[in-house]
Amino acid sequence: xxxxxxxxxxxxxxxxxxxxxxxxxxxxxxxxxxxxxxxxxxxxxxxxxxxxxxxxxxxxxxxxxxxxxxxxxxxxxxxxxxxxxxxxxxxxxxxxxxxxxxxxxxxxxxxxxxxxxxxxxxxxxxxxxxxxxxxxxxxxxxxxxxxxxxxxxxxxxxxxxxxxxxxxxxxxxxxxxxxxxxxxxxxxxxxxxxxxxxxxxxxxxxxxxxxxxxxxxxxxxxxxxxxxxxxxxxxxxxxxxxxxxxxxxxxxxxxxxxxxxxxxxxxxxxxxxxxxxxxxxxxxxxxxxxxxxxxxxxxxxxxxxxxxxxxxxxxxxxxxxxxxxxxxxxxxxxxxxxxxxxxxx
Length: 345
Prior knowledge:
Helices cover 41% and strands 13% of the residues. The chain is of the alpha/beta class. It has two domains: 2-112 and 225-332, D-Maltodextrin-Binding Protein, domain 2; 114-206, D-Maltodextrin-Binding Protein, domain 2. The protein has a five-stranded mixed sheet with strand order 6-5-7-4-8, sandwiched between helices. Strands 1-2 form a two-stranded parallel sheet. A two-stranded antiparallel sheet has the order 3-9.
């Protein structure tokens, strides 16, 4: 219902959104926009905003989409000004903000709690949660996958210290799973889909549903993963008009890809730009909810990730996520804001 409300409220003014912001906010202070980019469906709004010319209409005539090998390097690029927009899972920016680094959440790009997948080899014989103790699980340490595994352990009463975790990026996880040097991987899409496509594997648990024998098919949410739109405090202060216009374009694009009438077009463009098989993109599309709303669910997911960081000893105490949330541009662009951010320029 909330998703339909977002579409209905925004529909009437979609065509005039950028023009209205340009009149109200003035022209963008910068014409160059560099957005950290990845080759997966998470970046559907970015792709559409570029394809439709909405970012160009906003004043960004020089657009770059560099990719990064890790969240740490992308975060460093944001703080150094090499990129102005970062779209990571919510764990890395929460960790940075908790450490006092001047980054800001502008909106949720998409809710992706269903997209975290624990996939194991069938010959590992994983039937019950306790079976995970005897296998090696590949995941990228410090990513949202770490928090998802902690959520699984907490729900099923496992001792996290007994889980054999091997730190490696997704491509290495996939290769190692095939070679049987690890017996399971825990990763975001499309790696879970690709691992299941091997044929000798099984879905042990998604972010929202169990594959264990005793409760197979039961709805169990162990993930609090969100993809966020993140910028730096410096960029907002230096280019407030550009920030507002950027959010107007992206919220408009989120609205567009969320509309079922545009599904085929969105799938075509995402598949073409990411060079992923269209059938793969279609198969995992429903696992992403493109909604920039600031509501209690946003606060709860952010708190869950911060609590994981405290429990794992990575930070001493959790800050209020609203202290590094700047919701004004998203609200001005038509996003639903029932819990506003506290940060002000």
